[in-house]
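Quick one, T. Sequence first:
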Amino acid sequence: MGLLIGLGTGSMALVFAATIANTWFSKSRGLLIGILTAGSAAGQLVFLPFIAMLAQDPGWRQASLLIAAGALAVVPLVLRFLKNLPADAGVLPYLCGSAHGGR
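Structure tokens:
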């Protein structure tokens, strides 16, 4: 079960990063994918030990409820602030590096 969850999470994170990079950025997409992947790994490094402790002592149900509560808590923020396309926010795709001579 853990292997399947790991494969699903890893696959989804890369697709998510590639979608954001291609939609919101015109240059430096590889750098952005690297930053988003590092952010995903850092989030796992911070939260997974705590979730593992919860799953071990009180039980997996409490750990699952905490994850579900966290996901529900961010839904209003996602609906309010995240946009699908740059045009939805009234901006053009970002040109990373254009202030430094296109590097």
